[in-house]
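Memo to structure team: turn this sequence into structure tokens by end of day. - J.P.
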Amino acid sequence: MRLRLLTLIAFSLFATMASAKEIWLSIGGTTASGTFRTDARIFNPSTTKDIQIQAWYLPVGNVDNSAVQPLAPITVLKRQQLVYNDVVTSLFHSSGLGAIRLTSDDDFVATQKIYAVTSGGTLGQFVAGVDATSAKAKGLMIQLQNNGGSGQTGTFRTNVGAANPNPTAATVTWRLYDKNNAQVGNDHVVVMPPFGVIAPGGLSGYADNVPSTADLSDSWLSYSSDKPIVAYGSVIDNGTTDPTYIPAAEDTGVPVSTPAGKVFVVTERGGPTSSPSSITISPQIVQGALKPGDTISFQVSALDSNHGLRVLDPDGITMIDLMLTPGAAAVTATFVANTEGTYSYYCTNTTCSSGHNSMKGTFVVGTATTPPPPRY
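Reply from structure team:
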């Protein structure tokens, strides 16, 4: 009898967990120019019960969003639809662009429509919510076009974005191909922090060293990742601003990403007292993770003001020395950690914020040594 009871309890717990649902609306909000806007809908298909939904707004910037807190639970009455026009403003009372994460113990449907706010109107694009279980470690987007700029009738441009639905970092390798199916430039490796969101950006940002002569008038993009992610393309008619949403399909021809070397996202922030100035590295570098001879890449960005980053080896030799502009694309700096010991890093812009002196840290390659003092 006891075994039967335990079996029934286990089955009940499994059924409860199996019914839980997590949906991602991969991008939403209003662009800085105000050109594009997002409306969302959430529907409860149940005929018998009201349901509760948790909602998170996760800003773009490819930063660690694991500390973001959800709204108070949203109640959706049975067989009813909730309407959120300009969803980031109406639901989250915020602004800008980001992904929306929705979870519930019950089944639900969530969708969004993205459209241009123009005097002539626009068709807009429908974006279905992506179930977290449908995120892909190997993805492919075809029928991408990039052969002109805004206002050039008869031409198109393509933006690509992604979201990491995992509570741990994902290392993603992107490969871009031209009209003749030849790879353009080199592999582009990006570390996406936990729940990180990459804003939609041009195709050329998804490959390194793209030649100016590349023909992207009919191109495609592939990726492989060590964690499943949500990725999409948006092809925009330069004459009408009408966009076409292209979700990632499964790419069975590439292996799951196992990049050579170690790649980390480094974010500098000079915040107020409630959000202290800091340099964060994701994933966190724990002792034993790096060994002498490892190739290390830092993808560095500044969130709020001009910052600098200098990395010194245990002998005080400079490995990285960067100046950073807020809002600019991340800068990738790569070095080989040949020297064993404790490496130090710090912001070199002494006027970046009142908390500048706290913007420093160390990490270990192999066995730790006593680090030299930071050289501000």
